[in-house]
Amino acid sequence: MGVASQLSSPPMSLGLMTISTSKMGMFYQASSTKCTWQKKNGTPLTVWGTGKPRRQFIYSLDLARLFLWVLREYDEVEPIILSVGEEDEVSIREAAECVAEAMDFNGELHFDTTKSDGQFKKTASNAKLKKYLPDFQFTPFHQAVKETCDWFCANYDTARK
User: Fold this and answer.
1) pTM (2 decimals)?
2) CA nearest to 12, candidates 71, 92, 76, 74
3) Strand pairing category for 109-112 and 45-48
4) Of 17, 35, 49, 53, which has the most beta carbons under 10 Å away?
5) Where are the beta strands (DSSP E) in the chain?
């Protein structure tokens, strides 16, 4: 069951053990690491671009539950997108503010508009997923960010920086 199927998920995931370096990597992972450094140094947290682009973020534990469902239950050959709904998109500005709040960062949040915003939206529809799992509850974005930041702070010495 499910093994022959294809799946797709959006590139913006966050969660326990998803931390990567501050210079490379996805928005959340880089922001949480940089936030820690900026807080210690008393310097602004710089986010590339205007903060206006919108993204869908999925919590890694939700994604793991969906992967297991695909492996066990999803029998189609056609791909299925594992993503939060379009209505759950947040702007990069909102995401940066959420990370700063979760990290207790009270410094300046600076948007470097000399850097590219990239694609404005990368929306993926999860309509097919909702058809199969209408009662699946995604972890709310703010809760996912808070839990991830708490994990990162508790594991700072061993998390990739």
Assistant:
1) 0.79
2) 92
3) parallel
4) 35
5) 7-8, 13-14, 45-48, 54-55, 58-59, 80-81, 90-91, 109-112
